[in-house]
Amino acid sequence: MTDPLNFYGVTLTSRLLVGTSQYPSPAILAEALEASKAEVVTVSLRREAGGSRAGESFWGLIRDLGLRVLPNTAGCRSVKEAVTTAHMARELFDTTWIKLEVIGDDDLLAPDPFGLVEAARILCDDGFDVFPYMTEDVTLADRLVDAGCRVLMPWGAPIGSGRGLNNIFGLRALRARFRDIPLVIDAGLGAPSQAAQAFELGYDAVLLNTAIARAGDPAAMARAFALACEAGRAAYKALPIEPRDMAEPSTPVLGRAFT
Amino acid sequence: MKIAVNGEALEAQAGTLAGLLSELGYEPALVATAINETFVRAKDRDACALKEGDRVEVLSPRQGG
């Protein structure tokens, strides 16, 4: 393992984290997860009807694949909801990891930064390893690190929008400000090229769901994202050239004829 | 007593959360529970007395992004 990723003391090889929702079938989900080579998948908790055991088959599928789960608090709109959901997830999934979502706006599914910091502090103090779904705001990131977060997950664009990286400047600033904290682009990616771009900016990992699950061929798209992540990370490590305003000849000028 | 389970009003016979899960046909190991938005650990369900108007949530693993 030459380029490992570390989240809260856990070493990972794959830098692609994948959601498990919206796939056409459980079989296609399993096929796509395998093609993605992801080691971490996001899961959620939802209401169970008495006697239905609806969650059992899904959970069995994930466990059979041997993947590490990152439970989310998706849909929570208050600190109390998010904290309670995190506790329920910790018991049911037997993990201290939690993807913390506190949603402040229904149209954009934008994080509520105020609730996010408060919930993060409560959960970090209670022994959780918090992965906050956040905007790229540097001050917010500071507060989350102060609260105890050791991974940050800024959005690229609103969840499910497929718009890619909306604020390159802000994401660059965040990367420059937090050199030693793993940064994950969470949400908004639509195409593999956008994932590669995230890595070229120096981001450590990407987390996406819709772009794979809603693709015409989810397994093929999962493979494409895996390749793009690998390419983008390799490009970052290879130190790309800086853009220039003017041309610079690549063929030697010395020895040119007719001069 | 009248309580709500996952947002649905119902008349419960059981007096405890563990009894309610059994009454409604849940497999206790496959769900997580909360009452009035406060988490109730699996090991505390036997001792968790229900009262009129309680809002019980019973959740299980699902797909997520």
TrEMBL record, chain A:
Main localization (coarse): cytoplasm
Family annotation (Pfam families): ThiG
Source taxon at top rank: Bacteria
UniProt EC number: 2.8.1.10
InterPro entries: Aldolase_TIM, Thiazole_synthase_ThiG, ThiG
Keywords: Cytoplasm, Schiff base, Thiamine biosynthesis, Transferase
Gene Ontology annotations for the cellular component aspect, listed alphabetically: cytoplasm
Residues the record marks as active site: K99 (schiff-base intermediate with dxp)
Pathway recorded for this protein: Cofactor biosynthesis; thiamine diphosphate biosynthesis
Any one Gene Ontology BP term: thiamine diphosphate biosynthetic process
Residue ranges of every copy of the Thiazole synthase ThiG domain listed in the record: 7-252
Chain positions recorded as 1-deoxy-D-xylulose 5-phosphate binding sites: G160, A187, G188, N209, T210
Electron transport as UniProt keyword: no
Reaction equation(s) it catalyzes: [ThiS sulfur-carrier protein]-C-terminal-Gly-aminoethanethioate + 2-iminoacetate + 1-deoxy-D-xylulose 5-phosphate = [ThiS sulfur-carrier protein]-C-terminal Gly-Gly + 2-[(2R,5Z)-2-carboxy-4-methylthiazol-5(2H)-ylidene]ethyl phosphate + 2 H2O + H(+)
One of the record's GO molecular function terms: thiazole synthase activity
Subcellular location per the Swiss-Prot or TrEMBL entry: Cytoplasm
Database matches in PANTHER family: THIAZOLE SYNTHASE
Family: Belongs to the ThiG family.
Protein task: Catalyzes the rearrangement of 1-deoxy-D-xylulose 5-phosphate (DXP) to produce the thiazole phosphate moiety of thiamine. Sulfur is provided by the thiocarboxylate moiety of the carrier protein ThiS. In vitro, sulfur can be provided by H(2)S.
Subunit record text: Homotetramer. Forms heterodimers with either ThiH or ThiS.
Protein name in the entry: Thiazole synthase
Organism: Rhodoblastus acidophilus
Record lineage: Bacteria, Pseudomonadati, Pseudomonadota, Alphaproteobacteria, Hyphomicrobiales
Automatic annotation (TrEMBL), chain B:
Domain of life: Bacteria
Residues in the signal sequence: none
Name of this chain's protein: Sulfur carrier protein ThiS
Native species: Rhodoblastus acidophilus (Rhodopseudomonas acidophila)
Gene of this entry: thiS
